Amino acid sequence: MSLSLTLIGVDIVCMNVPVLLRFLQGSGEWRDLIGMLCGSLGMMSWTWFALRNAQQLKAGRFSAREWSTLQGIATGVVAIMILVLVAVLQPRILPLELSSERWWAFGSAVVFMSVGGSWIANAL
User: Fold this and answer.
1) Cα–Cα separations (whole angstroms), residue 87 to 23, 82, 107
2) Are the C-beta atoms of residues 28 and 19 closer than 8 Å to each other?
3) Taking the model in full, what pTM does it have?
């Protein structure tokens, strides 16, 4: 596992060398540096997630199917919480004029992608 993490770290550094060089030479922009940081943090968080996920499955508290279902439900709940948060903080960016059929389609897609996506990913 340490070899895998080392290779991931080397990959992050290699991918970001051009951005760092441009920034150090004075031709880079802050948004490039922030983008590099966000990409690196995203990669590290997904690596952490994969390792923790494997530990949870080895602990044996839940079967792989139950664990995938729980992750799908959690993903759906988080998506709804984000929708509510956006509705409260930035209501102008929501297309509130959509018909109820479109909102039901959106809700169905959220449920399918959260729960169904977890099942499909587990099967693969």
Assistant:
1) 37, 8, 15
2) yes
3) 0.52
What distance lies between CA 101 and its chain's CA centroid? 28
CA 79/CA 87 separation, integer angstroms = 12
Write down the residue that tokens 């996506």 correspond to.
Answer: 117
Q: Nearest 5°: phi and psi at 79?
A: -60, -40
Secondary structure letter of residue 63 according to DSSP: -
Query: How crowded is the C-beta side of 107, counted as CA atoms within 13 Å?
Result: 8
Q: Please give the structure tokens belonging to residue 11.
A: 């990959």
pLDDT digits (tens, 9 = 90+) for 40-72: 888 888 888 888 888 888 887 888 778 877 877
